[in-house]
Amino acid sequence: KSANPQWREQFDFHYFSDRKDILDIEVWRKDNKKHEELLGTCHVDITALPTKQTNCLELPLERHPGSLLMLIAVAPCTGVSISDLCVCPLGDPNERQQISQRYCVKNSFRDIKDIGFLQVKVLKAVDLMAADFSGKSDPFCVLELGNDMLQTHTVYKNLNPEWNKVFTFPIKDIHDVLEVTVFDEDGDKPPDFLGKVAIPLLSV
Description:
Layout: E1 22-30, E2 36-45, E3 54-60, E4 67-73, E5 81-84, H1 93-102, E6 116-124, E7 139-145, E8 148-151, E9 162-171, E10 177-186, E11 189-200
Antiparallel strand pairs: 1-2, 3-4, 5-9, 6-9, 7-8, 7-10, 10-11
């Protein structure tokens, strides 16, 4: 019940500079659980923004009254990576030793914000639900930790896909929960949900 809402939410997107990307933003309102109405959209050309600084943007909503105030910062990613199993970032013994020393007890208070990082190996899925008429699915896997999100490639026409990818996330809050969701790619339509698991970091 507000015409001037304040969300104060921060979202981290992993942007690769070799692509020309447009950030699409939609503002919706809810009447109840079932009814939603689009209040407007706006777009930001990421490639046009100065890097390594916080850009304050007031974006008018297209074909609707109102505007959206945002702070957008484009900066190099640190601690986030996607790799194959054969080049796993923790596979090198020297690197493991450096990391062990970096996070040992005596260095705990050297950098309060540097809590650590989480490495996840997404190997495969087994006996997924068939989402297509052919009796198959086109599954991909999405990993979310806080407001960080990474995803695998799609394995087409397969109910037992193998991704064999390694994902590394910086940890910002030890109470976060890693959410792993499997979707079926459905062309231009929204992907179909195939399953989900949630893993609290404190249980690792």
